[in-house]
Design goal:
Layout: H1 3-6, H2 11-22, E1 50-53, E2 61-66, E3 73-79, E4 84-91, E5 95-99, E6 105-113, E7 116-124
Antiparallel strand pairs: 1-2, 2-5, 3-4, 3-6, 6-7
């Protein structure tokens, strides 16, 4: 159980290893500490969710499903070399159909809204 620590070297680790090797290598509980977590308040910020399906796609059509709390988003499609392939599309609804370029390959669908951004890889067969 000490192999990971002993794989490193420092003055303290080397000193402990020498001490440990010279001992009978038995484990002794020296002390015990009990802790308790208490939550006194939270402020939760949920990121918008994004689902792209079908993935992979055979005909190039995919649906983007965005969580309902997204008022407006911009969708861009890139190839793996980072080239923008489709002009940015403004999305105002929770479900948006999108057609990928005709060529088979892997594409990056980048969706960006107010203060958030998600990128998903999609395979066109």
């Amino acid at each position: 159980w000490l192999d990971e620590m002993f794989a490193h070297s420092s003055t303290d680790i080397d000193r402990f290893k020498r001490w440990y090797d010279a001992s009978d290598r038995s484990v002794v509980l020296v002390g015990e500490l009990l802790t308790q977590d208490v939550i006194i308040g939270t402020k939760q910020t949920l990121e918008p969710s994004l689902l792209v399906y079908p993935n992979p796609t055979a005909d190039g059509w995919v649906k983007l499903m965005l969580s309902q709390d997204i008022a407006k988003a911009t969708v861009k499609v890139y190839d793996l070399q980072g080239r923008l392939l489709l002009a940015p599309i403004q999305v105002h609804e929770a479900v948006q159909k999108l057609q990928l370029p005709a060529q088979s390959g892997t594409y990056l669908i980048d969706v960006q809204g107010d203060g958030w951004r998600k990128t998903i890889k999609v395979l066109r067969r």
